[in-house]
Structures
1.
Amino acid sequence: MISGRISALRSYLTEQGAHAIIIPANDPHQSEYPPEYWKIREWISGFTGSAGLVVVTHTDAGLWTDSRYFIAAEQELQGTGIRLHKVIDRSAPGYTEWISEQLEPGHNLLVIAELTDTKSMEKISTKLQEKDINVKAVEDPFKVLWKDRPALPDDPIYDHDIAFTGMSRSEKINLLREKMSQKKAGHLLITALDDIAWTLNLRSSDVECNPVFISFLLVSKDRSTLFVKESKLNDGIYKALEADNIDVHNYNTIQTALEKLPSKDSIMLDKGQISVDLFHSVAHMDIINAESPALLLKACKNETEIQCFEACMVRDGLALVHAFYWLEQNLGIQDISEYDFAMKIAECRAGQKHYRGESFPAIVGYASNGAIMHYRPQENTSKLIKRENILLVDSGGQYLDGTTDITRTIALAEPTKAQIKNYTLVLKGNIALAMARFPEGTSGCQLDTLARQPLWSHTLNFSHGTGHGIGFFNSVHEGPQSISSSPSSRASRPILEGMISSNEPGYYQEGAYGIRIENLITCVKSSTEGFLEFKTITLMPIDKRLIDKNLLGEEAVNWLNTYHKKVFESLSPHLDNEHKKWLADKCKEI
């Protein structure tokens, strides 16, 4: 099946007089998780990971992805003829070097105009000019090649109430206009779906696990324009947008509208977010290249959002208590697969107030599957969970009052000494970051070291980032911040007051088991002026059976006991006696 698709793509290359094509994983909005319609990279390769791109030439094909997906990619690419290229440094993925080696001077490389961001296009062109390779942007060929391509989603758009958001859309647009004025911009083009959802206090379900809707937003000095499929809006939202001086135009008219903007006007946009075809539409204007101001405004949660998040964490914790209690009571009595437990977690969350779905497909990795960082259990192929080894569970929920992301690793039998040591080191790193107090301006890259140091001291490490930003009933992976050892632009950004991030160090022994402990942390002001610290807001016990108290150390033990006391005090009033007794045992001091 994959080989036939690649063969058809190669025929297309021949028709175009081209020698290679780049197929990214994103959509025209540079989304991490695109709608089914734009999952072209997955369709052509069979690889389902959220990160990575494919390059196809007449004689070869390769997939470039990072360490989170090495194991999964090797499995999914088997028999496709596509070779895996492991990306160690995401800031230098290496595919352009490979292309320059594969192609000859004068050869043509194609990129898909609506899926390739302008910044990437410029980088690719500059690199390949050295070899005299031509880079051409073309219309999406998969409109023809993908015969049974899914339709674009048509889910309705609904309001996200100000009781949750803490700010009206008019207030948010005024903040954006202030930033535009500082840059002397007459227009601001917002292409990122999560930025648009946040700005307009609107949500939908166009992307799996992401409550966003396919659209573009043009903010001008006096009015704004939302480009969206108009049938997705009801009369009430139409009227509300009109009252806020927001016009609604069809999604497909964006290019024409941009082309009609006066050439004397200036437009603010992010070359790393805008597709090549849209950039061409504003080439006649004065272009101000800058990140969308919505990115940072969205990341620093307001007081209402933070309060909502903390209330949401109580209900999410209750759902997980019920799910893990169920697993403990039924394991060994009935067959429970990884998939079954993922569905049980979703079921327990679905019973909670304001729940709107998962924030990502749950990762339930038993034994060796726990070492596959982004493993997703399938109904017919997932492992049965047994009373042996350890289980890694990474899951999250979307609620009207927050987005959650939590990982717990639990022992299903008496753990080995190695498992206890490695788990304790991971926990020690988690606590070190949670307890951090740091001067304003400290970057995520600097803080990342705290979470790794306990593992490093035993010559161990993990290859993924330590933390990512979290949206507010929005994308579970949100910028601009990142807590990571990678020298990326995100990791170099300072961690600011109001940012909510994940704290998730891990350790993975391929073929045996995986360990990850993840809580969400809010950046708050410290008692010392000029300093910041973190407040852990996730509420769920950490498995004490896997802890070496002596290795953990007195300071971390005190933190853990205080944390467990908070978990019990927060959750127990909402539990029946049976679950309360279970929670009390899990939260006992060590």
Note: Residues 2-145 form a domain with the Creatine Amidinohydrolase; Chain A, domain 1 fold (CATH 3.40.350.10).
2.
Amino acid sequence: MQTPRLLSPRLRVVGVVCAAAAIAACDNDSLISARDECTTLRQSQADIEGRRAEGMARVRLSVVSRLGVEAASPEQLSLNGAELYVGGSCYRVEGSSSVRLADLENDMGTLAADVSVEPGDVTHVLLRVSGPQGGTRTYSADRIALEEAVTLRPGSRTDIYLALNPVGTSSAVETAVVAAGMMPWSATTMVMDPARGGTMKLPGGFEMEMPAGSITEATVFGVDEIRTGDVSSTFVVMPESDLSQPVTLRLPIDRSRVPQGMTMADYGGRVKGAVAESSVQGNVATVTAATGLGHVRMGTSLPYVETTGGLRALMGPRPAEGASSEASLVDNECYRRLVNERATLYNLLAQNVGVRSFQCENVPPYVHIVIVNLSRAGLSAYPRIHFPNVQNADNTLQLREISTHITQVNEFAAINGFTWTGDKGFEWGGTGTAIGTVYMNYERVSPWYTGAEVMVGFGAWNPTYGTPTRFFDRPAGVSLDLSGYTEWMVPGTTSIVKNGACSRVPGGELDRWSTLGIGGGLLVMASSASYTTTTSYELCSVYEGLNVLGGAVRLDGGSASGISWGGVTLNPLTGSDYTAFGNERHIAYAVAALYP
């Protein structure tokens, strides 16, 4: 699926206070006439969540103080909501709250308005302040014109920060826009002023300290926590920014998640996928982001394994260069690691419905690998395959994140399917039509496809014998007998393995990719780790190393690539993809493995 044009991860704005006597000089006529015709909004959080699916845009207005109020001061600020001017419309957001001014002398401030509105460009804002304020200050009630409009996109969230600033040495207070930015839906935010630095603290223990001068312009930063089941969550710091001075981050850790045979000393900081300086004290890890911000976590370079039975354990030592005696087209470190540990992985698969291997996450092709036991000897009941989706009456599929798709079923592993036509996948409520030969529950849900393609078909599940699988390679214009394997069928245009061997040549397109392959009663899912790319040729090493050579296909790639294990997405999006789509892109369907 081709990625659409992406938005800038940072939306920079400059606030200008418009005096009442000169408002015509900075407001356009349509806004002047609309001021007394504001639509009053009273929305609960449930309303805001529900309107996301309708294509509405969420905008949050927060306030910080730059008045220098002493910490012990009892002085209060009363807020009565705000007015937002979006295009030619005015929205009056109702609200009533009282806050100590001293509690706003930080970089997170307080929320003045949170509302869903029609998408468009925010050109003006007005903070509604009422008295008495418990002090001698007087507050401006003027509208603020944004020098650069802030665009609200359907289904997205945008945060705008205002600052209360002193007017000279008088008791007057003016309000100015500091910065605005598109944020993850569930993020906690702060505003960073280059001249003063910034600090953020989350209730769960995450902290971020940004010194003055570490960035060059005022910026809204958002932090979203992604729970991965590892020793630490992944904390997404957006926008991904270059740094001129190091930033310190503190992450809570869970020592009970350290695999058998390993210690916390085997873990270190990771920033944007790269090793970062770190230290651990108690249950807190301190990570230094030296040159840039992005995804932050604690990680390890040691290969280990997880099973659906709950085992987390270090695998054996890495083999020496050239240690494998098997013939291989792609003889890389990933291949050698998998060959070295294949017997152990197979033994684990004889006792579990699924295994996650970490062998190739830190070496090319840099992929997460999940292996499913569909019919290999050893189990009393085998897992099933399902393509979770929501199908509309017109045969289109509801586009959803992979984590949302799999909430329909009791899955333990899933990977994205093939591409689609229709919406691009970044808007809630989008739909698409599957491309290729896609069968779901014996029903074809895609138009007939005339181009060359490869397919993996799944037959009827049996708890004793598992799920039959078959690989199909169909040149253009050739008809195939698919009978017996159309309970579920996923297509692709590019094979990774066919005729019992790798089907690629060195080189090829470099991107994030997802693949799916079968052989020996096993189903293998492999998808690119965050911040990495690979080629189809390199992906052969996964299937050759595992000796799963019944056939493998390349699925959708780029921002659509996603893989899930144990209910969490392993490879959340990064950079501009994250800005456009969030943690995951909305896709047409997933290929999921269910507990029996």
Note: The radius of gyration is 27 Å.
